[in-house]
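Two quick folds needed for the group meeting slides. Do the first one here.
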Amino acid sequence: MFDEYKDLIKSDVADMKNSGGRQAGSITAALLLAEFVDSATWVHLDIAGTSTSDRASGYLLKGATGVPVRTLAQLANDLAKTSTLKKSRSKIKSK
């Protein structure tokens, strides 16, 4: 991330603002989160743009799409499969 965006979350009355405005919103949101995670591995998913739909399309209904939920559920499923596969290979090698 680029430190020059930190100016957008500076505040006169607090340690920082929780929004840098519309300009570079996803970047400033990530910068805000970065202040609290210390050395933990983390990611900022900017999902607001896909959270609602003005019309029905395919399997999506008009309104809340659930796209972020579907994406995170798929990620969890993929990670679980990868983890299970690694454990299976580890057991085979140890025999």
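Then this one, please, same format:
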Amino acid sequence: MATTRIVKIPPVATPQGKNLEAISKAIDQHNTNCPFPAAEVRMNPFEVERLGWDEIRGLPVVGDPQISTGRFRIVCSRDLDDGGIEITEAVAEPITVGTPVETPEPYAPVGPSWKPPA
């Protein structure tokens, strides 16, 4: 009798989900390392329109044509008051999603010299 194995494939995040995760991590990093909270997220206007986001985690998303596509900036509230902008950039890396490959179950050698891992 043949046995059937079920191979679990982890979910693949959407590009929008990956963008949101990267921006959220950058906001957390800024707020952890700076006494002033993040005030806004700046992105290329094309990206703002494509994603359709007005805000992320309560911060407004502002179109800035000086930022290239695939990048964003977290703007510090201190810099909005002083007129300067602290630049915290993140670059999205292209990802390649491959076809899942079924692999055999891992096995451990059995015999007198085999010892379970510590």
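Slide caption for protein two: The chain has a mean pLDDT of 77.
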